[in-house]
Design brief:
Blueprint: E1 2-3, E2 6-8, E3 11-13, E4 20-25, E5 30-36, H1 40-59, H2 62-78, H3 80-91, H4 95-119, E6 124-127, E7 131-139, E8 142-146, H5 152-165, E9 169-173, H6 180-192, E10 199-201, H7 206-215, E11 221-225, H8 228-238, E12 244-248, E13 253-257, H9 263-275, E14 285-291, H10 295-307, H11 327-342, E15 346-349, E16 369-372, H12 379-382, E17 389-395, H13 398-406, E18 410-411, E19 413-417, H14 421-430, E20 435-438, E21 453-454, E22 457-458, H15 463-469, E23 471-479
Helix pairs in contact: 1-7, 2-4, 2-6, 3-4, 4-5
The structure holds NADPH dihydro-nicotinamide-adenine-dinucleotide phosphate (NDP).
Length: about 475
C-alpha cells in the first residue's frame, strides 16, 4: 500500500513520530494508502528549511521564479491523466471532472501567477519637486498555506502559486482527507528542480499539523481555505501573533431565477451549479429561489433532469456524480436531509444513499436531492451542507428574493438569472456576496478578485489581490531638495 511522505527541504521524508493515518477511497469505502500523521516537530523542520531557503528565493529575479513555476505547470500537464486518476481515487469525484477541471486548473494556477509576477508593479507618488515616494512590495518570508478536501490540488496550488511567485517560501498543509495529489506535486517539484526548502508539504490532521503551522512564530502570513468554524479558530490563534491572514470560508449561496430568464441555459447551468462535484464546491448554489410564474414548470423540469443524473463509480465516464469524500461527511449530509424533513420539507427526489454494485458496493454515494416547502430561515436553509442537496422556494417580489438571498450569515457567491439588464445590475449591487454570476456559473477569470463577505471570509485571492496579499508594502520617501 502506498505510503505518502512529507516534502521537507527538497526531500521526501517520513514523519518524525513515525505515525500514519489511514487514507480511504470514498468510492469503495476502503483504506488504500497511508498518510503521515505529522506533528509540531515535522512542522518545525519544514519551517526551518523554508526559512533557510527564503533569502535565496526572495532574491531570485521574478523571471527566473516564473521559469521554475512554468516548468512545474508543464509537468502537471504532462501527468494529467495520472493526477486526474489520483484525485478521483482520493476524493471520490468523477475522473472526467478531475481531468477537465481540477488538474488543468492546477497547471493554470502556476502558469497564471508565473506570468502575473513578471507584470507586477508597485506605485510611486511624486510630491512635486520636494520628494518622491515609491512603494516596495517585498515577500514576507515563510507562508503557511492550508487547503480543504473538495478541490484538493486546485485549491492547494491556488495558494502556493502566488505565494511562491511573490518570492515567499511555503509550508503547505493539504487536507488529511485528500493528501494524494499534494504528494504527487512534491514528486513533480523534485523533477522540476525546485530549490530545497522553497516549497514544503506537511501531511497530517488540522488540529495537530495544521494548528502547529498556524501558531508557528516564524510563519508571518497564512492563507486558509476551509470551514467557517475552523477559520474562526485560526483567527483566534493568529490575531495575537499579528499574522497576516486570508480566510476563504463556507457559503450558502443563493440562485435567483426570474421568469424572464433564458430558460434552457438556466436549467442546464442550475443542474451544474447544484450538483457539480457532488455539491462539494463552496460556490455551488444550494438555495434556489424561483419567480412564482415559472415555479411549477421549473420544479418539474429540474426534478426530471436531476433524476437522469447517474450516480456511480467515479472511474466511469457516464457517472455525473461520484462518491462523497468521507464517511463523516456522508453522515453529515444524511443528517441534514433528515433535518429538512423534520422542518417540514418535502423531498422531491433523492434523499437517500445510493448503493452502487461491483467494486463500489461499500462506497459513500448520495442521490442528488431536491427539497421544497421549507422556510428561508430554517436551519436547512441557513447552514452549509456542502453536498448534493438543494432547496426550492417560490418568490413573488424582487425585494423578497433579495432579502432571502442576503438572509444568511454567509456571503460567498450568488447566481442571478434574468434577461432584464437593469434588474441584473440593480441586484448585483445589492447582493451581499463576493462573487455574483449573472446568467452563468463558475465562469472564472483568474485576474478577478475571489472571496467572500460576512462569515464567508476575509480578504481576496486571485490576480493582483493575491500578489499584494503575499507581499508587504513598504513606502520609501526621498527628499529631493
Ligand atoms: P476544514 O475547515 O475542516 O479544513 C480545512 C483545512 O484546515 C484542512 O486542511 C484541515 O485539515 C485544516 N484544519 C482543520 N482544523 C484546523 C486547525 N485547528 N488548525 C489548522 N488547520 C486546521 O474544512 P474542510 O476540509 O471540511 O472543507 C470544507 C469547507 O471548506 C467548507 O466549509 C467549504 O465551504 C470551505 N471551502 C471554501 C472555499 C472558498 O473559497 N471560500 C473553497 C472550498 C471550500 P484536515 O482536513 O487534515 O483536518
Amino acid at each position: 500500500m502506498d505510503r505518502i511522505q512529507n516534502y521537507i527541504g527538497g526531500a521526501l521524508v517520513a514523519p518524525v513520530g513515525g505515525a500514519y493515518l489511514d487514507n480511504y477511497e470514498p468510492a469503495t469505502g476502503h483504506v488504500y494508502s497511508h498518510t503521515p500523521a505529522s506533528d509540531a516537530r515535522d512542522v518545525d523542520a519544514a519551517v526551518a528549511e523554508a526559512r533557510e531557503a527564503f533569502p535565496g528565493w526572495a532574491a531570485t529575479p521574478a523571471g527566473e521564479r516564473a521559469r521554475l513555476l512554468l516548468r512545474l505547470a508543464d509537468l502537471i500537464e504532462a501527468n494529467l491523466e495520472a493526477l486526474a486518476e489520483a484525485e478521483s481515487t482520493d476524493n471520490g469525484k468523477p475522473v472526467w471532472l478531475a481531468r477537465q477541471v481540477d488538474i488543468p486548473r492546477a497547471a493554470s494556477n502556476f502558469r497564471f501567477f508565473a506570468h502575473a509576477v513578471t507584470q507586477f508593479a508597485s506605485e510611486a507618488h511624486a510630491m512635486g519637486e520636494t520628494a518622491l515616494n515609491y512603494t516596495l512590495r517585498q515577500p514576507h518570508g515563510v507562508a503557511g498555506c492550508i487547503s480543504p478536501w473538495n478541490l484538493p490540488l486546485y485549491l492547494f496550488t491556488w495558494k502556493i502559486a502566488p505565494a511562491l511567485a511573490a518570492g515567499n517560501t511555503v509550508v503547505g498543509k493539504p487536507s488529511e482527507v485528500t493528501p494524494l495529489t499534494a504528494y504527487r506535486l512534491s514528486q513533480l517539484c523534485l523533477e522540476a528542480g525546485f530549490p530545497p526548502g522553497m516549497l514544503n508539504v506537511i501531511h497530517g490532521t488540522g488540529p495537530e499539523a495544521g494548528a502547529a503551522l498556524v501558531a508557528h512564530r516564524d510563519v508571518p502570513v497564512l492563507s486558509f481555505t476551509g470551514g467557517t468554524k475552523t477559520g474562526a479558530a485560526l483567527a483566534r490563534t493568529a490575531a495575537p501573533l499579528f499574522k497576516k491572514l486570508s480566510l476563504e470560508l463556507g457559503g450558502k449561496n443563493p440562485t435567483i431565477i426570474f421568469a424572464d430568464c433564458a430558460y434552457e441555459a438556466m436549467l442546464e447551468t442550475t443542474l451544474r451549479s447544484s450538483f457539480a462535484n457532488q455539491g462539494e464546491i463552496c460556490l455551488c448554489g444550494s438555495r434556489i429561489f424561483v419567480e412564482r410564474p415559472i415555479y411549477d414548470r421549473f420544479r418539474d423540469d429540474f426534478v426530471a433532469r436531476v433524476e437522469a443524473l447517474r450516480v456511480g463509480d467515479p472511474r466511469c465516464d457516464d457517472s455525473r456524480l461520484g462518491a462523497i469524500v468521507s464517511r463523516p461527511h456522508l453522515d453529515k449530509i444524511l443528517s441534514y436531509i433528515n433535518l429538512a424533513q423534520e422542518e417540514g420539507g418535502t423531498i422531491l427526489t433523492g434523499g437517500a444513499r445510493v448503493h452502487v454494485e461491483g467494486r463500489c458496493r461499500d462506497g459513500w454515494f448520495v442521490a442528488p436531492t431536491v427539497i421544497e416547502g421549507l422556510a428561508p430561515d430554517c436551519r436547512t436553509n441557513q447552514e452549509e451542507i456542502f453536498g448534493p442537496v438543494v432547496t426550492l422556494m417560490p418568490f413573488d417580489e424582487e425585494e423578497e428574493a433579495l432579502a432571502w438571498a442576503n438572509g444568511t450569515p454567509y456571503g460567498l457567491a450568488a447566481v442571478l438569472w434574468t434577461e432584464n439588464l437593469t434588474r441584473a445590475h440593480r441586484l448585483a449591487a445589492r447582493l451581499q456576496a463576493g462573487i455574483v454570476w449573472i446568467n452563468c456559473w463558475m465562469l472564472r477569470d483568474l485576474r478577478t478578485p475571489f472571496g467572500g463577505t460576512k462569515q464567508s471570509g476575509v480578504g481576496r485571492e486571485g490576480g493582483v489581490e493575491a500578489l499584494r496579499f503575499f507581499t508587504e508594502p513598504k513606502n520609501v520617501c526621498i527628499k529631493l531638495s
